[in-house]
Structures are given as C-alpha cells and as structure tokens.
C-alpha cells in the first residue's frame, strides 16, 4: 500500500502535465471558461497544484522509506491517501472531456479520502510531512469541489444561469460549513486553512472583476468566509496553545 501512495503521487503531476498539453481534450482553463459561475477563482489560484503535487511526492517517498514503513498511523492513512491521489489524477482527464457528473463523484470522493486522512493527522507531532501534504491537498479540495459543483449546475442548466446569485450563495454556505467544520475537527489546521484561504482570495479577485450579475455579492461572500476561517483558525490555535499539558507521575 505504501508503494501505491508513491505511485499515485507520481501519477498526479504526470497527468497534469499531459492535461496541460491537451492530451485528453481541452485544458481545464478552457473548459472552465465555457461555464462561468460566481464561484470560479482567478486563474493564478490553480498554481497551488504545483506545491500540492511537490508536497505529496515528498510525503509519499518519506512514508515508504525507513522506520516510517512500520508506523501504524501512516499505515492507517495509506489506503485513503492513495485513493485520494488516484481520484485527483482521474479528475483531470474527466474534466477535459466535460464529464461533469463523473467529475463531481471523483472530486468529492477525493475530498472524503484526503479529509479523513488529514483528520487522523490533525496533531502533526512526528508526522509533519504527511500532515502538511494531506492537509494542504484536503484544504484546496474542500473549496474546489464546490467550484466544480457550480460549473456542473451551469453546464447542465440545472438552475438558472441568468440569475445565479441565490443558488451560488447556497453553495458558498455549504462550502463554509465544510471548511469551518473540518477545521474545527482538526483543531485549527493552518495548512488546511491556508489552502482554502488562497482559493477564497482568488474567488474574491475573480468575482470583483467579473461582469456577471451578482458577482460583487459573490466576491464579498468569499471574503467573508475567508475572514471567518482565518479568525477561527487563530482562535483554535490559541486555544490549543493554552491547553494544559498532562504531566505523568514519576515511576515507582
């Protein structure tokens, strides 16, 4: 299983490279531009994938070598981490083909796998490489999944695309619930929150410059969620630092 983590960690940037060269169809930016929404982020935001892929590779190599191969916690997260990496890789060609319903199953599946893994590593301690990589990946997917959902709604015309604000605000609320809920469970995970804040900031930038009806309200919604997430993270980290440390009695 440890080797599967490494294999799929290598597969993700390879598939991303092929996708960027239109090996599976139009690249993700082209497909995304065909279905503008009030949740889409500025293009620069997706550069975070480079950092995510690098950290995932470092984690995958680290967990497969040395004494880490016998670590029970790393063993417990190996299967969901491998699944999350495999689903992340699969999403890219599916999105290029415009298979939005399948993309939703895949991206929410990847989110479930990687969020569960990050929850197991909520207190990094001696597992910092795994905590950092999986938390950052899960944080980005926690927002990206809802961006993908908005594009599926527009692509299949499930809701009015001429009056998107109402249902878009509902998606913002759902994304906020996931982000704040998972961050609470992870005691204020700075890596998880940082990835989401990066994305929310890019949504604010994109929507504040957009000509779509309701884009100004969407920009402020993204900014408000970012502020809430930042404040929650700071408060949870402060509370963790004040938590009393248990002192074990001396032996005998």
Automatic annotation (TrEMBL):
PANTHER family: SI:CH211-161H7.5-RELATED, XK-RELATED PROTEIN. It comes from Luteimonas salinisoli. The chain crosses the membrane at residues 38-61, 73-92, 98-119, 131-156, 162-182, 189-205, 217-236. Keywords: Membrane, Transmembrane, Transmembrane helix. This is Tryptophan-rich sensory protein.
């Amino acid at each position: 299983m440890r080797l599967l983590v490494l294999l799929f960690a290598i597969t993700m940037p390879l598939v991303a490279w092929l996708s960027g060269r239109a090996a599976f169809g139009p690249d993700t930016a082209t497909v995304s531009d065909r279905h503008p929404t009030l949740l889409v982020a500025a293009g620069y935001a997706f550069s975070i994938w480079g950092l995510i892929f690098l950290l995932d590779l470092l984690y995958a190599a680290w967990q497969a070598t040395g004494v880490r191969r016998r670590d029970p916690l790393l063993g417990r997260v190996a299967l969901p981490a491998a699944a999350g990496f495999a689903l992340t890789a699969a999403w890219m060609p599916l999105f290029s083909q415009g298979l939005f319903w399948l993309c939703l199953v895949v991206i929410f599946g990847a989110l479930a796998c990687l969020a569960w893994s990050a929850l197991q590593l909520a207190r990094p301690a001696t597992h910092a490489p795994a905590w950092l990589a999986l938390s950052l990946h899960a944080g980005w997917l926690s927002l990206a999944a809802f961006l993908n959902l908005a594009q599926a709604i527009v692509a299949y015309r499930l809701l009015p695309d001429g009056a998107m604000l109402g249902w878009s605000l509902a998606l913002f609320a759902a994304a906020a619930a996931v982000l704040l809920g998972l961050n609470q469970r992870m005691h204020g995970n700075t890596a998880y929150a940082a990835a989401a804040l990066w994305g929310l900031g890019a949504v604010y930038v994109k929507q504040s410059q957009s000509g779509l009806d309701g884009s100004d309200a969407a920009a402020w919604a993204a900014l408000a969620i970012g502020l809430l997430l930042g404040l929650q993270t700071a408060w949870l980290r402060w509370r963790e630092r004040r938590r009393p440390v248990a002192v074990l009695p001396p032996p005998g």
